[in-house]
Amino acid sequence: MDDKEAITNELNKRVEAFRFFELNNKQGEAGDRFLLPWIYSHMFGTGRQSRGNSRRAAKEINLFFNQKELLEIEQDAGDLWLELIDKHLQDSALKYLKISKSDPSFGRKFLGLVRMNDAEKDNKILKDVYGGMITLLLDLPDFPYQALMVRALDESFLSVYPERQGEVDLWLQTLPDSAMREIFRR
Length: 186
Description:
Oligomer: single chain
Distance between the termini: 34 Å
Structural class: mainly alpha
Radius of gyration: 17 Å
Number of strands: 4
Strand content: 5-15%
Strand order of the largest sheet: 1-2
Number of domains: 1
């Protein structure tokens, strides 16, 4: 094992120690702090789209990435940081979408009284990811993890729903700026 690989492994262990934590009163179950940026982007992105919402989302997501432990790891990682954080963002985005898809309480309508069928739920997830979460992230101009988070959501969505590739490609064509489309690497 060379030095770069050893350093990368050590940094990855530090990120994992930050990311995963033991849940109170849940022996053997771990929580995942990296779900927070996805929760924030979902919460603020699927609600009413406004400048105030975008500012609050940026504030909350930046607070997550500016936690002392993560900043220390970022400083120690140097040039390896983006590769390291990208791996964890990809993994947590995939986990978030799988949880959303399998959660029986996700996708209720009429004040939570009626459960959506699977097709309605899948359509809601598509709309939430592309019409809400990614749209919100694209609206955060000075956010350093914008491209990483957008790609993580896009790639994770298409790994959970590969049959929706055509709809996603059509959505991409609606983006007004070609620079935005380039973030998706297609």
